[in-house]
């Protein structure tokens, strides 16, 4: 199974530039998963011990607003990474993640990866660099949306 | 397209609006309506994609509105006294129009290449004619992708047409915020570019929306390798006369009503970074 996952990881832009040995190490912490439409990938407050690379379908990140219901914050689509709460304590999810359609993804065991990164700091550095890039991109997109460019305030 | 100089436009009667009757009025969103207009006098004016008219609500005032369709169609968001009066005009009501003014989207220049159309909010209205023109010329261009972002699902324009267009071109839609009942994408419109396939060096991009969104979209297109001179943006500034006299719509050394509203990013880039310009 890990060898097959190796080949899947080669096609994921997030892992661009990693060597075969590093992909094999990552694949050792990975498994393929599937979520039916409407199923929750994770729930706010639950332990965050995994991250996902979405291979097919879309996942909605949501927050539940009392008296307002679920509010969709962002969608994570095929090729994107879902989840970084596994990186730092307290290792708990901050939002709900719900499959909008059938989702096929590769799940990576966070504890397993943290151990491997601790044992191989060079791998850890390269992996953290990739997560930092994702975080920065999402932060910039969020800042842009904070401007509410389509709203009335942006026109004045 | 050649840009008419103000002196050429100032024929007798240029500043006098001509009467048009509202033929139909359709509500697009909570604050946006599309009006079809028929001339009360001579034939309808010839309009090129990207041009605008000065629309006059009698007794209230005049605003520039991009043309969203031919025969003459205006999609108007009610954000001020004049636009609210225009949006409230029932079939049979009479509005005054001057124009059309301005240059047009260079749609035909995209022949042989791929096309990316990026629209934000009401910015889809002036791009609707671009999409329709591309559909007419579908066999002359390669891939055609419409990337459309709006504030919420309820703010999406032309939803029935978007479904029709999907049969012939790629249409990707995203919104800034949505409730749990939305099954589409949530995120900024530029994010849609990551999933869009086109040949960057042979791609023409047409972009219209809030200026900050256009800046980010232009940068994302440049990052993908689209040449600056092939990125076309439609600009907006406060506009009073529409014919290059009042100077309110000045942008750098140009007047948007006279020299625009469509500019290439190669031409715009030095001015987009200048504050208060």
Write a structural description.
The complex is a heterodimer of chains A (156) and B (277). Chain A has a single domain (2-143), classed as Jelly Rolls (Sandwich). Chain A is built from 4 helices and 8 strands; from the N terminus they run H-H-E-E-E-E-E-E-E-E-H-H. Chain A has helices at 2-10, 20-27, 110-119, 121-146, and strands at 30-35, 40-42, 50-56, 59-65, 69-76, 81-82, 96-99, 103-109. In chain A, helix 1 (2-10) crosses helix 2 and helix 3 packs across helix 4 (121-146). Chain A is globular and about 50 Å long. Chain A starts with a helix and ends in a 10-residue tail after the last helix. Chain B has 277 residues and is of the alpha/beta class. In chain B, 21% of the residues lie in helices and 32% in strands. In chain B, the strands form 3 sheets. In chain B, strands 11-9-8-7-12-13-16 form a 7-stranded mixed sheet, with helices on both faces. A 6-stranded antiparallel β-barrel of chain B has the order 1-2-5-4-3-6. In chain B, a hairpin with a 2-residue loop joins strand 1 and strand 2 (32-39). Chain B starts with 5 loop residues before the first helix and ends in a 5-residue tail after the last helix. The model of chain B is unreliable at 6-10 (pLDDT under 50). Chain A binds chain B through residues 58, 60, 62, 69-75, 77-79, 100-101, 141, 144-145, 147-152, 154-155, and chain B through 79, 120-121, 149-151, 155, 174, 176-180, 182-188, 190-191, 194-195, 209-210, 212-213, 216.
């Amino acid at each position: 199974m890990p060898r097959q996952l190796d080949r899947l990881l080669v096609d994921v832009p997030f892992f661009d530039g990693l060597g075969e040995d590093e992909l094999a190490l990552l694949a050792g912490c990975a498994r393929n998963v599937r979520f039916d439409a409407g199923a929750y990938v994770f729930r706010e407050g639950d332990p965050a011990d995994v991250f996902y690379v979405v291979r097919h379908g879309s996942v909605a990140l949501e927050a539940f607003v009392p008296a307002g219901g679920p509010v969709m914050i962002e969608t994570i689509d095929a090729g994107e990474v879902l989840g970084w709460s596994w990186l730092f304590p307290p290792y708990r999810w901050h939002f709900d993640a719900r499959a909008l359609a059938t989702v096929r993804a590769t799940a990576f065991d966070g504890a397993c990866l943290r151990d491997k990164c601790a044992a191989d700091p060079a791998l850890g550095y390269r992996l953290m660099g990739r997560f930092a890039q994702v975080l920065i991109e999402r932060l910039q997109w969020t800042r842009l949306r904070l401007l509410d460019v389509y709203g009335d305030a942006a026109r004045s | 397209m050649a840009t008419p100089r103000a002196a050429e436009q100032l024929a007798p009667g240029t500043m006098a609006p001509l009467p048009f009757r509202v033929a139909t009025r359709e509500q697009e969103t909570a604050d946006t309506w599309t009006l079809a207009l028929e001339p009360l006098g001579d034939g309808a004016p010839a309009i090129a994609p990207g041009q605008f008219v000065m629309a006059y609500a009698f007794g209230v005032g005049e605003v520039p509105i991009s043309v969203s369709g031919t025969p003459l169609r205006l999609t108007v968001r009610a954000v001020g006294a004049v636009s609210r009066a225009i949006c409230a005009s029932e079939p049979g009501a009479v509005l005054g129009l001057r124009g059309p003014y301005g240059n047009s989207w260079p749609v035909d220049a995209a022949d042989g290449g791929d096309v990316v159309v990026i629209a934000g909010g009401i910015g889809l209205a002036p791009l609707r004619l671009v999409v329709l023109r591309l559909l007419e010329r579908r066999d002359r261009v390669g891939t055609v992708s419409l990337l459309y972002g709006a504030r919420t699902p309820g703010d999406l324009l032309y939803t029935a047409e978007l479904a029709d267009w999907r049969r012939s071109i790629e249409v990707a839609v995203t919104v800034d915020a949505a409730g749990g009942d939305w099954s589409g994408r949530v995120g900024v419109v530029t994010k849609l570019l990551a999933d869009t396939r086109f040949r960057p060096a042979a791609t023409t991009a047409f972009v219209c929306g809030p200026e900050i969104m256009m800046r980010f979209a232009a940068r994302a297109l440049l990052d993908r390798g689209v040449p600056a001179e092939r990125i076309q943006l439609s600009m907006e500034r406060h506009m009073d006369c529409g014919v290059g006299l009042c100077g309110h719509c000045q942008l750098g050394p140009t007047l948007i009503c006279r020299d625009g509203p469509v500019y290439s990013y190669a031409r715009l880039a030095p001015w987009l970074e200048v504050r208060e310009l």
